[in-house]
Amino acid sequence: MQFPVLETERLILRQLTLNDSEDLFEYFSQDHVMEYYDLEAFKSLDDARNIIEHFNSEFDKGKGFRWALELKSENKVIGTCGYHNWYREHFRAEIGYELNPLFWRQSLMKEAILPILTFGFESMQLHRVDAFIDPSNSSSEKLLTSLSFQDEGTMKDYFFEKGKFVDAKLFGLINK
After folding, report:
1. Pairing of strands 11-15, 150-161
2. What is the per-residue pLDDT across 42-84, written as a single tens digit (0 to 9) for each?
3. For the chain, which residues make up each domain, given as ranges?
4. What is this structure's pTM?
5. Alpha-helical segments (H) within the chain
6. What's CA 148's distance to the chain center, in Å?
7. Strand, coil or helix: 163
8. Domain 6-133 carries which CATH code?
């Protein structure tokens, strides 16, 4: 299968390439960006290359999709968004995303997620999309609720990240 390219008013959503390493490193290397991410802040361009290779490997294995969010006006990758933990037999997958803080609070992630949800429901035949967030990540919660995701509760000590157990707030969206 060829990686799907999606487009919005301000973004081109496409497969990541190793040429995107510097753009990803720019924000993945910032501690405040990684606060709610299950990885430590990147220390080198190799870290960025490794995550790109990981995302593309998951696509190659049929386990998910991770789109580069390329800002049309700058030809720059400003974030990624996509599906992981795709359970085809259950018609569900998890969505994940992150964005360069230079572009926070401009509704760019919402703009990106809308066609990705359409792709998930129509092309991947998903019935349900899950999103797990840190309970203190109010920006992510606002984003998800604006996209009609429902708060389904908090699971205590659900993930082990960065040497400690952390809670996870589950949001779900059902294709009706």
Report:
1. unpaired
2. 999 999 999 999 999 999 999 999 999 999 999 999 999 999 9
3. 6-133
4. 0.94
5. 21-28, 31-34, 45-60, 108-122, 138-146
6. 17
7. coil
8. 3.40.630.30
Cβ pair 116, 81 in contact under 8 A: yes
Give the ranges where 29-107 is alpha helix by DSSP (H): 31-34, 45-60
Q: Which pairs from 114-121 meet CB under 8 Å and 24+ separation?
A: 114/8, 114/147, 115/6, 115/7, 115/8, 115/13, 116/6, 116/13, 116/65, 116/67, 116/81, 116/82, 116/83, 117/147, 117/173, 119/4, 119/6, 119/65, 120/83, 120/93, 120/95, 121/175
Query: What tokens does 27 get?
Result: 């924000």
25-34: b (≥16 Cβ within 10 Å) or e: bbbbbeeebb
List residues bridging with 11 in a β-sheet: 71
The amino acid occupying position 167 is D
How many other C-beta atoms are found inside a 10 Å radius of the C-beta of residue 145?
Answer: 12
d(CA 175, CA 32): 33
- 8 token code pair: 């919005």
* Residues 103, 104, 106: CA angle, nearest 5 degrees: 80
